[in-house]
Design goal:
single chain, mainly alpha, 8 helices, about 65% helix, about 0% strand
Length: about 140
C-alpha cells in the first residue's frame, strides 16, 4: 500500500484551501484524496470513497509527488473540442452570414453552415452557438 507521507503544513493548508475554494469538482476530489492518504487512509478505502479505480488513485498520488497542486489539475486540451467555437472568427462570421441570408429559415441556415464548415453540426448545436454569440455581442455593447 502506498500513501502520501511527507506533507508540510503549507502543503496541507494549500490542499484545504483548494478544496474550499476551487470551482472544479475534479480538482477538489483529487486534493481530498491526497489529504486523506496523508491522514492514513489506504488506497482501497480511497477507491471506495471516491468510486475510482486503483490506477486513478496512484496516478493522483504520483502527479502530486511530481508536480504538486499543478499536477492534480486537468491539462489544457482535454475533452471533446467544440464543433463551433465562439473564439473562432471564421465560425462566427459564417453563422452570422447564414443568419442574414436566411433570417426566418433555420433549416436553410443549418444546411449552409454544414456545407461551409468541415464538421457537421446539429440544429441544437447551432442554436446554442447563436445564443452564445448573441450574449457575447450584448456584453460587448
Amino acid at each position: 500500500m502506498r500513501n502520501v507521507k511527507n506533507l508540510t503544513g503549507q502543503q496541507v493548508e494549500q490542499l484545504r484551501q483548494t478544496i474550499r475554494e476551487s470551482q472544479s469538482n475534479v480538482l477538489r476530489k483529487r486534493c481530498q484524496c491526497v489529504l486523506y492518504s496523508y491522514y492514513g487512509l489506504t488506497v482501497s478505502e480511497l477507491m471506495e470513497m471516491f468510486d475510482v479505480d486503483r490506477r486513478s488513485i496512484y496516478n493522483w498520488m504520483n502527479r502530486w509527488q511530481q508536480d504538486g497542486l499543478q499536477g492534480l489539475q486537468d491539462k489544457p486540451g482535454r475533452g471533446l473540442k467544440p464543433k463551433l467555437n465562439p473564439a473562432d472568427q471564421q465560425h462566427v462570421e459564417k453563422v452570422i452570414q447564414a443568419l442574414k441570408t436566411y433570417p426566418k429559415e433555420p433549416r436553410q441556415v443549418l444546411q449552409q453552415i454544414n456545407h461551409e464548415l468541415p464538421k457537421p453540426v446539429s440544429q441544437d448545436t447551432l442554436r446554442r452557438f447563436v445564443k452564445k454569440i448573441s450574449r457575447m455581442d450584448s456584453m460587448a455593447a
